[in-house]
Amino acid sequence: MQPLRSETMSPKEEFSPAHLMGPMQYMAHEAPDMRIEGRQFTYRQLEIITNNFARVVGKGGYGIVYHGCLEDSTEVAIKVSSKSSTQGRKEFFAEVQSLTKVHHKNLVALIGYCMEGEHLALVFEYMALGCLKDHLTGRTSTAIVLSWKQRLQIVYEAAKGLDYLHTGCDIIHRDVKSSNILLGQNLEAKISDFGFSKVSGSSNRMDRGSYVGLVGTPGYIDPELSTTLRHTYKSDVYSFGVVILEILTGEPPNRNIDGDSHIAKRVASKVAKGNINAIMDPKLRGEFCQNSVWKVVDLAMRCVALSSSQRPTMVEVVLQLKECLDLETAGQPNGSIEDDVRLSSALAVKTIKFAPAAR
């Protein structure tokens, strides 16, 4: 499903000269202030690198992503802005502004760019195994069945990337989802797509870490946004909680079955029954440490709490995922039935607050 494209501008933004300009004027207005690291490509070079844009590896509201190969045989992904989309151009500049600040092994790296006339493009490192979503849903011919340990490692690495955005860069991603977590050849995970991200560098402490507007992808959007229209770090945490629920269940966020349309509501009802196997993706065939799984379920449900004040920070999410991964790696025994019942009962009480209202 495509991300939402509506966005509410703050009064300060509403009369900004940039919003009164056409696409080319807007580009000219923004470009001089850009300090883009990496190599600058001409459009002709991009045509050569992509073999005249022969292979499409992704699509979005921004435009199309093509596979390319540099002179030294390095594979790259080239995101080309749609000429007809003003929103796509806004996302281009938002992504450029964010990428000039971020440098982390769990964030997709920018290699270069093209800003030639109407041609706008970003050149990224190529992630050979595509996005996490494809492997969880099995919707592509190249999808693989990820083990529980692999899934846990992937979300742990993605969590570290998101934590870096929040604590190291003051950036709110605003479109965290499984299709924006890309996997390299060795399943290393990196967060991608910063087209909706915003720097939250307000000098006012009360406003720091928040941004007014409504963007994102249905199923991952913080329920509080329906009333506040204010993205915060905890909005990203909610979205990441949905991703954790996806790796647990193998199911999409939204599914219209028996009224339990959202994944948090579906999992909450199963937690109340205390049966971990009813929650877990059948493709895992029960091959997981129940102690680590219950801890991950608990973490996920806290992330998707309706009230942002009840959600953990990404720092806490990283620490808890590391503990769960260590537990899984150590091969701890599954624990007694009494332990499972005790933990699942505690979770059942808490999930009354966590299950979101029907969408």
What would you say this structure looks like, in words?
With 359 residues, the chain is an alpha+beta fold. The protein folds into 2 domains: 11-125, Phosphorylase Kinase, domain 1; 132-354, Transferase(Phosphotransferase) domain 1 (Transferase(Phosphotransferase), domain 1). The protein is built from 13 helices and 12 strands. The protein has helices at 11-14, 23-30, 43-49, 86-99, 132-137, 148-169, 225-228, 233-249, 263-271, 276-279, 290-303, 314-330, 337-354, and strands at residues 39-40, 56-59, 63-69, 75-81, 110-116, 119-125, 171-172, 181-183, 189-191, 198-199, 210-212, 230-232. The protein has a 6-stranded mixed beta sheet with strand order 1-5-6-4-3-2, with helices on both faces. A hairpin with a 5-residue loop joins strand 3 (63-69) and strand 4 (75-81). Helix 6 packs antiparallel against helix 8 (233-249). The protein starts with 10 loop residues before the first helix and ends in a 5-residue tail after the last helix. Pfam families: Pkinase. Keywords: ATP-binding, Kinase, Nucleotide-binding, Serine/threonine-protein kinase, Transferase. Residues 51-325 form the Protein kinase domain. One of its GO terms (molecular function) is ATP binding.
